């Protein structure tokens, strides 16, 4: 019995010692690692930190590179001078002179013609050769086709026949327009009736107009009848007659 009491006493003492050791170890741990139990509060979030670091009142940062400005539209080639069709005018004295003083200038402006090549000469016709040759060859219309083609026209305007007098133009006009169409299959061929500045317009001028119309329309060309606005003008067409011709040409070709 005495032995059992001694063993129990030792057990109690051992438990006490173990308890003290545990308390001491716990105290040491708390002393060394004090505050470990409480999780440290974060100093600041990344977002708030970046905002606070910006200067007060500063605006949003500019992008590193601004977008390139939209390119300016290129000029419209069609709006520049000389971009319209190339036009050859071949006729008699009615079409000779400064373009601004003849029907040619007004018609060109109104119809949007580009380069104008004027091969007109006094007295040129379907049968007659010019009295002078400052422009183009000294030849009739049909013998001037090579010069017309050389200009590379998109449009050819033939305006004459008065100097041919009272002779039939049926065959000469038909032959001229057929040859011209063969050389310029894609060009617009236009013919204007012959006009006079005499006191009266002879009936054969009306006949000339009819045969010229037949010749040009036979090759898918266009005939323009401007009437006889120059009757009584004398040696040359007046400015009023030129303006009247220009208006008729513009109206009928528009």
TrEMBL record:
SUPFAM superfamilies: SGNH hydrolase. Residues 39-63 have a biased composition (Low complexity). Residues 39-88 are annotated as: Disordered. InterPro entries: SGNH_hydro_sf. Residues 64-74 have a biased composition (Pro residues). It comes from the Bacteria. Gene3D superfamilies: SGNH hydrolase. This is Uncharacterized protein.
């Amino acid at each position: 019995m005495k032995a059992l009491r001694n063993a129990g006493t030792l057990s109690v003492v051992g438990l006490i010692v173990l308890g003290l050791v545990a308390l001491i170890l716990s105290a040491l741990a708390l002393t060394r690692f004090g505050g470990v139990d409480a999780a440290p509060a974060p100093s600041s979030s990344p977002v708030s930190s970046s905002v606070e670091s910006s200067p007060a009142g500063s605006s949003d940062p500019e992008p590193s590179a601004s977008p390139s400005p939209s390119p300016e539209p290129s000029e419209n080639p069609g709006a520049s001078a000389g971009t319209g069709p190339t036009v050859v005018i071949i006729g008699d004295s009615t079409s000779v002179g400064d373009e601004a003083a003849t029907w040619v200038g007004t018609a060109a402006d109104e119809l949007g013609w580009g380069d104008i090549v004027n091969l007109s000469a006094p007295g040129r016709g379907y049968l007659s050769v010019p009295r002078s040759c400052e422009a183009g060859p000294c030849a009739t219309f049909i013998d001037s086709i090579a010069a017309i083609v050389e200009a590379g026209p998109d449009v050819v305007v033939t305006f004459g026949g008065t100097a041919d007098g009272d002779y039939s133009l049926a065959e000469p006009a038909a032959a001229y327009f057929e040859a011209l169409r063969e050389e310029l299959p894609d060009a617009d061929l236009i013919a204007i009736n012959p006009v006079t500045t005499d006191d009266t317009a002879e009936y054969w001028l009306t006949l000339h107009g009819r045969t010229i119309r037949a010749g040009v329309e036979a090759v898918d060309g266009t005939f323009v009848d401007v009437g006889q606005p120059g009757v009584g003008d004398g040696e040359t067409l007046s400015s009023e007659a030129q303006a009247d011709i220009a208006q008729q040409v513009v109206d009928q070709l528009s």
